[in-house]
Structure formats: structure tokens, C-alpha cells
Amino acid sequence: MLGSWDATHLKLLQMSTRVFALIVGIDEYKSGSIWNLQSCVDDAKNMKRWLMDDLNVPKDQISLLLDRQATKLKIEDTFTQHLVNNPSIERGDAIFIYFAGHGSSLTAPPDWYQDGSKTCAVQVLCPYDHDTKNAQGRITGISDRSLRAMIEQLAAAKGNNITLFLDCCFSPSQTTLNILDRRITRWTPTTKASPDDLYRDIWPGARGSLHVSKLGFYDPDLKSHTTLLACPQGDKALEGKEGGRFTSTFLHTVPQLPLHRTSYSQLFDHLLERAGESQRYLCLGVHKSRVLFDDVPFPADRRLSLATLDSETKLIRVEIGDIHGIVEGSEVSLHLHNRLHSHNPSIASAIVEEVRPSSCLVRAKSHFPTVPKTCWAKISRWNNRRPFRVHLKSTFTTFIRMWKLRGKISSKPGASSSPSGLNVLRVKHPNLADISVTMGRKEATVIQHNPVLLDQEQRVVTIQKTDGEEVIDDAARFNLYLSHRNRASPLRSLIQMELYQLDPSSWSKSGVNSLHNATATIPYETGAIYQVLLRNNSKTDLWPYLAYMDPSRYRISMLYHPDASSEEPPLRSRGTLEIGSGKPGSEALSFALADQKHHDYGYLKLFLCSVPVDMRVLEQDPESSFVSDFEIKSATNHRSKPPIWDAMLASVVFIRHPE
Questions:
Q1: Which residues contact 517 (CB under 8 A, 6 or more apart)?
Q2: At residue 150, does pLDDT exceed 70?
């Protein structure tokens, strides 16, 4: 893959998925005296699916233990390895610990509590091998004292952004349950383990001092984490066809809430309202007034742009314009916020009436009396007058997949659009198409028919995706921005872009400018680093935005995006700017050529504007960057004169010479 950059920059771009989870679900227990449950495993899988699908948490950041995997030793070892000693987890990252299974309780052994009390019960989580015997004795589960010590150790290492979710109960008011209740209650008596086994089985970090709290998992004063509980002490945690009532209520509720501004306490108000009298849920901990996961999974969505009421025209001004590819007749949806993974339905639709260089004016399509003080707009239809033309190429093995895709893309102009709103047209012959697409079982094969810059024959691209609409959408957006330019070319011949290889030790230029006639042909070297130098020979101070466009994946990534809150334009009149200087915010550029390839190429796309704009809307992946509200808002403060913009395109070709 071409167009990567160093680890410091890459880590910054991954902030949107900084959630790590340990999820445990147990239906079947090793002991024959423990009733098996029906839906804990499904609950655990559904919780993992929610983290991955709704919050976009990477699979490798979630550890899932089910049934036989969820022994006491395995849970504790995974807690240590996946959470406490995980170098990928940084302080402040969100950590989620989920348990669905039986809870239980044992009589406290002597001196378990600081005041010497012997009457209180010790609450425990029941692992798969609970109340069975091993070489050391009876397994008593994971006591509240043990888990508290474990989480305190985790909080000391990674911070207290920790959520403990327990869908079980510990002491139902009726210890003798009828058969029906017994089958649906997530509680079991512990019949064989003794109080002495509790001491032997305790987490090593919990042995040093006497236990103070008699409230167990119900302690409201914990500072290390926030606890979410299925029921109060003495009540029952129940399960049914949809799973545990607590888990199913949670998973049905969170997709309907603006989670980025919903605290744990507010969330539980919604859960209790939904549950009614069927089961009472609890939220405990000093930090329960925090936003869920301390707001970590809800970064700004760069697909949305600031929208405000224009005082002169009384229309809605959106901070996207000609430089972004907007044309009259394009449509936007209006939203109350700009956060990812947080419920954000459209409050109105609007159509573009006037396009300006860096903004546009839109009119609501239906009655929309007032615009909120802060409103956000997302492009829903681009109104690209020339449709993106697609030829669907079927084979005997791909006929059914292609037939389904064929039904989603019309052969009538204006009848179909891509997921991002680009006008797409299906054509019968490859010579009429921009691309030809064949969908396999695990990948898509795309033939690009119209290279914009390089004089190459048909280029075949293999993309590891199974969603044909998404592949076509990526290709359509890629081609839109690759060819996008200002026809007036106000900065023509006034801006010079140069590309230099850097010495890896001194970061000084080690050669001459590689870009000639908008093309650089470079002998490939593993680990080589490069710098882009911009020269501004115009009379205008400029804000430059440099993107790397990778045609092998139809991906657009911002290599340089200046901070709009700065008062000084980075590229001054008659001045220069180094991108890849080694200074903060300007990491060196690096490129990687796959081992099996002897040559490859990509594009450097430079946008220039006399005012700061948000160009991250170009990026194909909404997770790829973090944009703060302040940065976006500040872009509207530079309106002293009508802005100008322009764009440049250069290709970079890498060739691997035989050794």
C-alpha cells in the first residue's frame, strides 16, 4: 500500500476506536448441581456485536470467553493479559468488562471484613468451573473483593474509564425457587465450597488488607469504575427469549440515544423507563455522571459540516462549497450533532441554491422554522451532472451476486445513487464505463477504464470487500475528487509542488526534486522517507491541504490538514512550506510497495484556499481522523473578502529494480 505515514501520526488517527473489552458469557456449567442457563452466550455475542458494529471497536480489542473457555483461571489470566498488561491500551482508554451468567454468595470467613463481621455474605461471579474441585480445593468463583482489587490494579495502570456490566444476581429473596423461576434466574446456590476456600481462592492483590465494604458489588462509592447491575440486592436477574432482561433492554435502548451526551445516570433513566416494573436496574460509582465510556468512542464525524443561519439571505449556510465539489441542486440532510456512533437522525432535508468557493447556501425542502444554534449538514445527493458509469461483469460463479447488485443500480439516468449520494448509472458495454466490477465471494475485481493522469492500459484492482455498492461508492468518490479542479485556475503556475527524499538520520534533503511535469518516478527503497515542499509565488497567503489518493484501494487520506484555529496561514505569499519536515504535525511521508509488485503508483492531490476550510470530507473512511468542534467552528471566522481556491494533481510512480 502506498501513502502510509509514521506511527505517531497513525496513532492519532485511531482515536475513534479506543475501547477494549473482556466479555464473558456462560450457559453451561461444569458442575451437575448448577442449573444451566439459556441465553448468556447469546447475550455475550450480542454485546460484542454491538461494540463492533455500532461503536466500530476492532475485533482484536475484544476478548470473548464462552462456556468452557470461561474458567476462573482463564478469566483472571485474560483480565491480566488483555487488559492490565496490554501495551495497546493507553491511560484514559475506555475499558468494558461484561459478565452474563450465574451469581452466587458464600458465608464470609473469619476476618474477611475489617470489623470482624461474620454474618455478611460474600458475593461471587460464577465461572464455568464454579463449585467444582481442583488440585488446590474448591473453586469459589470471583468474589467482589477479588474483582475490586483486580479493577483497582487495572485503574492504576490504565485510568478509571472502566465500566463493569453484570447481568446476574447474588441473593434472590427466595432462596428456594420454583422450577420455572429457577430456569430463568441467573443465580445459583454454592453448596460445596466452604468459607475457607474463599481465602485460598482470592486474587493475590486482595490478600494484603482486610475488606472494608460489606456492600459487595453494590458499593456506590467506587472511584475505580462504574458498575451496571441487573437488579438490587435481594432481587432476581431474569432471562427470556430475547436474552437477559438487563442486556436486551440495554441493547435495544442505546441505538436510540445520543450517547455522546448521555451520562450513565441518564442512560439508566431510559433503561428503567423501558423496563417498567419487570426488573429494576442499578448504576453505581462516583463517576456515574460521566458520559458513557467517558465520550471516547464518539469522535466528531468529518462527513458532517457546520450549518448556521445566514443573516443576509435567511438561508442556511453550510461550510462546504465549490472546493469540496458541491454544485447547485445538491442535497444535504441536517442533524443536531456531528458525533460518530451516536444516534443522529436527520431533522430536515435541504437543497443547495448558491455555491460559494468554501461554503454554500441551502434551503430546507419542507417547513423548518428555526435552525438550532449549532446544526450540522451531511451531503445526501451530490447532483453530479455526469453520472459515474459502471459496467457489471458477471461470470458463471458470480452470476447470483452480480444479479443482486444489478438490481440496485439502474440503467436509467438519475434513477440510482451510491450510498454517499453520487449519481451512478449502469451501462451495457465496458467502453462506455468508468469502471467494470465483478464481485467474488470475498473480494471485488475492478477494472479502471479511464486513468486520469498516467497513460496506462486498463488497470485491474482487487479489493477485499464483499459489498458491491460500497466498492462502487468508493470508486465514484475517488474519481470525483481525482478529477475535481477549479476551471478558472486562479493560482495556475503560481504554486510549485516538489518531492524530495530525506536522509533518515538527519531528515535533510538527500537528492533533487523528483517531481517533473506533475509526475515523479522513483526507484523504490524499503523504509525511505520523503518530504513535499510547496512554493507560493502568488500574492495571496494560502491554506494548503494535501491528500494521498491510492488507486489500488480507492482510498483518500489526508497527509496534511492545517489547524483551522491558527490565525496564520501556513503557506505565506512568496513563502514555502515543508510537509514532512519532522516537526510536530508534519511527519515524514513513507510509501510501501507490496512484495509481489514491481511497480505501483498513487496521486498527490493538493487543494489550496485563501481561508481555512475542513477538507476531511474527502477522506473515504469516517473513522480515519479526529476533528474537534473548535477546529470546524473556527473556519467560519475568516470572511474578510471572497475566498479563492485551486487544486493541483501529481502522480508518484515507484519502480522496484531487480537486485
A1: none
A2: yes
Mean pLDDT in residue range 172-201: 80
Assigned domain for 547 exists: yes
Q: Grid cell 416494573 — which residue? A: 277
Alpha helices (H) along 236-375 = 245-253, 264-275
pLDDT of residue 451: 63
Q: Provide the grid cell at 374.
A: 449549532
Q: What is the pLDDT of residue 118?
A: 60
Asked if 434 and 452 count as a contact pair (C-beta separation under 8 A), the reply is: no
Is residue 348 one of the residues assigned to a domain?
no
SS3 state of residue 52: helix
Side chain identity, residue 425? L
What is the arithmetic mean of pLDDT over 82-89?
Answer: 97
How many Å apart are CA 143 and CA 216, to the nearest integer? 8
Q: Which residues contact 487 (CB under 8 A, 6 or more apart)?
A: none
Mean pLDDT on 303-324: 91
What's the rounded Cα separation, in Å, for the pair 396 and 404?
A: 14
Between 507 and 562, name the one with better pLDDT.
562
Task: Report the CATH number that the domain containing residue 284 is assigned in CATH.
Answer: 3.40.50.1460
**Which residues span the domain enclosing 199?**
19-295
- The number of beta carbons lying within 10 Å of the beta carbon of residue 476 is 26
Q: What is the average per-residue pLDDT within 381-398?
A: 88
Which contacts qualify for 308-316: CB closer than 8 Å, 24 or more apart? 308/371, 308/374, 308/375, 308/636, 309/371, 310/361, 313/354, 313/361, 315/353, 315/354, 315/361, 315/362, 315/363, 316/350, 316/361, 316/362, 316/363, 316/364, 316/371, 316/375, 316/377
Residue environment code for 632-646, b if the CB has 16+ CB neighbours within 10 A, otherwise e:
bebbbebeeeebbbb
pTM (2 d.p.): 0.85
CA distances 71 to 125, 127, 171, Å, are 11, 5, 22
CA–CA distance, 58 with 20 (Å, rounded to integer):
9
Q: What is residue 546's three-state secondary structure?
A: strand
Q: Which of 295, 321, 337 is the last residue of a domain?
A: 295
In a domain, 440, yes or no: no
The confidence score (pLDDT) of residue 174 equals 52
For residue 84, give the DSSP letter.
Answer: I
What average pLDDT score do residues 123-152 get? 94
Q: Are 244 and 281 in contact (CB under 8 A)?
A: no
The separation between the first and the last C-alpha atoms of the chain, rounded to the nearest angstrom, is: 21
What are the helix (H) ranges across 159-280? Answer: 179-184, 195-200, 245-253, 264-275
User: What confidence tens digit (pLDDT) does each residue in 28-67 have?
Assistant: 999 999 999 999 999 999 999 999 999 999 999 999 999 9
Task: Give the separation between CA 227 and CA 225, rounded to whole angstroms.
Answer: 6
Question: Rounded to whole angstroms, what are the CA distances from 650 to 87, 284, 604, 607?
Answer: 39, 57, 5, 12
Residue 206 in any domain: the answer is yes
Segment among 19-23, 540-544, 583-587 with least mean pLDDT: 583-587
- The whole-angstrom separation of Cα 426 and Cα 474 is 16
Average pLDDT estimate for 577-595: 72
b/e string for 604-630 if b means 16 or more Cβ within 10 A?
bbbbbbbbbbbbbbbbbebbbbbbeee
Overall average pLDDT of the 261-284 stretch: 93
Of 295, 330, 354, the last residue of a domain is: 295
Dist. CA 361–CA 373, nearest whole Å: 16
Torsion of CA 152, 157, 163, 169, to 10 degrees: -30
Per the structure, the count of domains in the chain is: 2
Mean pLDDT of the chain: 87
57 CB neighbour count, 10 Å cutoff: 23
Is the pLDDT higher at 318 or at 511?
318
Q: Does the pLDDT value for residue 372 go beyond 90?
A: no
